[in-house]
Amino acid sequence: SGKVRFSVDARPPSSWDWTSRGLYACLGNATLYGGATTSPTDLISKSYCARTGLTSDDNTSNPYPVYYEGGARQNVKTTNVAFRTWCRFVLTADLDSKTYDWAVYDLGNGSVGKPISFPAPEEPIASGTGVTFYNPLDEISSFALMGYAPHDADYNGAILFDNLQVWKNWDGTSGDLIYRNDFSERRRAVMTDARPLADANDLATPETD
Q1: How far apart are the first and last CA of the chain?
Q2: pTM for the whole thing?
Q3: pLDDT score of 207 more than 80
């Protein structure tokens, strides 16, 4: 029961490279983790309750925010995001009401993301509240990040993810931080291990934990 909050920074690519255009952040159950790591689409689609992200109508037009409700993707075409612009995606899922809030913030462009302590702008570029769970899950135990874009070795045109944080017992302003990853070291707040990564910004398609 209670609320789970997930925040992640992500940068869309310089363009999409095939028909599955988009990058997405999801909260779900244990099956979501297994589905995302083995990539069967049917497992993923049945295993998340909250999802937001960006997509485009074609490979080169600027992305717009999306969220998922009622068995379908809901498009928010009133706002566009420039390619290669860092955004912060925030999902707050309420297990008691089986609803979630979502928001997308514009953090500006650049090849390197903001520090994990960097505050989001006061106003999101798009948001929603009280969205019915895509799947009526009774537990939240994993997240998944998904993206479809070129795998550029120098990161210039690729999707990037950074600054992952998860809280439980979210009360609207704060909660218990249980996971934090700024990609300088990988850490679960409930454990003592910390494993360094090679790069400050990891290319991840998908990244799960």
Answers
A1: 21
A2: 0.85
A3: no
